[in-house]
Design brief:
mainly alpha; Growth Hormone, Chain: A; 21 helices; globular; disordered N terminus
Length: 433
């Protein structure tokens, strides 16, 4: 029996769905673990790969390199989205995990600036671009893959496992950074200790690759393929027939992206450099916040199946608009307790987004262009508003002299996403085609 012919509620379909979720989860964990490591290790990376003498400039250069990697996410979204809409989600996802493994492994092996000079930041930039290209195709493919495998009425819950597994990756990244910072001598951590998770991430690649080669293509894509309804130019078709939906998806994605990179990923660096808190305490706080997001994500995904997608992300945008500035005031107390409380509040708000974003973007587009359309809309949003968020926050603090200035990035993002979500119709449980 073909996958397309399966009853999505049958025991056979449920067994296939479990394998699909597992293969996606391992790959998503691997992708985000490797991708966000860079943000948590920004300080030792700046010391290893850029000239010393001006710590602030070295850190800004590190965050610029961090951001440039995001510029390759839209390129990966376009190329791998096109491939995934023409040849299948599984085929594209197998490619993404191989690319990420190579880029991550080399990042942990690059010699320092003191050893090879300008070649060090150049190689770092190349690896970061490879990670960005891979992640650009991974996110949209995994979201479409899971939603297309879900049974009716449970798309939010099934799709949320994509973000659940990425949060495990983010948690693993922050936890590894915390453990190394806490248990290694500062000079050891700065010189080579930070490289350990990058090498470890590389070793996870073959596991994810194997699992993805063993899972079947989604029933929805197979049905389209059987009907010969595959798009030959997914990007052109998406822009031509679903331009307004792409714009809405682009803007509603902003808040979760900005909040994650300003309030969680950037926060340990902010706490150490601006508030002079202990690096271990700052990383522990970020780790605990990621754990809360991870645990709440499937709950919020299941809730979105009952109350709708718009209510969830709209509430996220409004809450960040209202609480962005007070949360930075709370962090400004410069204690571990205030930092932790603020980040736990952020985690609860963030889960409204992470539990809903995979399914709402997938439901906005038909199968023949879904991979491309949601990857491009989300990928460009991440590239613009996520990749350079830590750099923008660092620049704003240095330019204004106010440690509270990054809060305005979160507030503006909350407003933009709230407007976008309330301008669209509720897509919950609409037919995928």
């Amino acid at each position: 029996m073909s996958q397309a012919a399966l009853d999505l509620r049958s025991p056979a379909a449920q067994a296939i769905r479990r394998r699909a979720i597992l293969s996606c989860a391992v790959g998503n964990f691997f992708e985000l673990f490797d991708f966000v490591l860079y943000g948590f290790f920004a300080v030792p990376i700046s010391q290893a790969f850029f000239p010393q003498g001006n710590d602030a400039l070295a850190l800004i250069n590190t965050f610029i390199t961090f951001g440039v990697g995001f510029l390759f996410r839209p390129l990966g979204a376009v190329i791998l989205g096109h491939y995934g809409d023409k040849h299948g989600r599984r085929a594209a996802l197998v490619i993404t995990i191989g690319l990420m493994a190579a880029a991550t492994g080399f990042t942990g092996l690059i010699p320092t600036y003191g050893q090879i000079g300008l070649l060090a930041p150049l190689l770092l930039l190349i690896c970061r671009c490879g990670q960005g290209f891979s992640t650009g195709g991974e996110w949209g493919g995994a979201a479409a893959f899971l939603v297309e495998y879900s049974e009716p009425g449970k798309r939010g819950l099934t799709g949320s496992w994509q973000q659940f597994s990425t949060q495990i990756g983010a948690t693993g990244a922050s936890l590894s950074a915390y453990l190394l910072a806490r248990h290694l001598a500062p000079d050891v951590f700065a010189s080579w200790g930070w490289r350990i998770p990058f090498v470890f991430g590389f070793l996870l690649g073959p596991i994810g690759y194997y699992l993805r080669t063993k899972v079947a293509e989604t029933p929805v894509f197979e049905a389209n393929e059987k009907k010969q309804a595959i798009s030959h130019a997914p990007l052109r078709e998406a822009l031509g027939s679903h331009g307004p939906q792409i714009a809405q998806a682009f803007f509603l994605s902003i808040i979760g992206i900005v909040a994650n990179y300003v309030m969680i990923v950037f926060m340990p660096t902010y706490a150490v450099k601006t508030l002079h808190l202990d690096a271990g305490d700052a990383l522990l706080s970020a780790t605990l916040a990621n754990v809360v997001v991870m645990l709440l994500t499937p709950i919020m995904g299941g809730l979105s199946d009952k109350v709708g997608r718009r209510a969830m992300i709209g509430s996220c945008g409004v809450l960040y608009l209202i609480l962005g500035y007070p949360l930075y005031i709370l962090v400004g107390n410069a204690t571990f307790q205030s930092l932790l409380i603020a980040q736990l509040i952020v985690a609860c708000i963030q889960s409204l987004y992470t539990g809903t974003i995979p399914v709402i973007l997938s439901e906005m587009f038909p199968t023949r262009i879904r991979y491309t359309a949601l990857s491009v809309s989300y990928g460009f949003s991440v590239a613009i508003f996520g990749g350079f968020a830590p750099f923008a926050a660092t620049w704003m603090i240095n330019s204004t002299g106010s440690p509270l200035s990054p809060a305005f990035l979160v507030m503006v993002a909350g407003f933009a996403s709230a407007v976008a979500i309330w301008s669209m119709k509720e897509p919950m449980n609409q037919p995928l085609d």
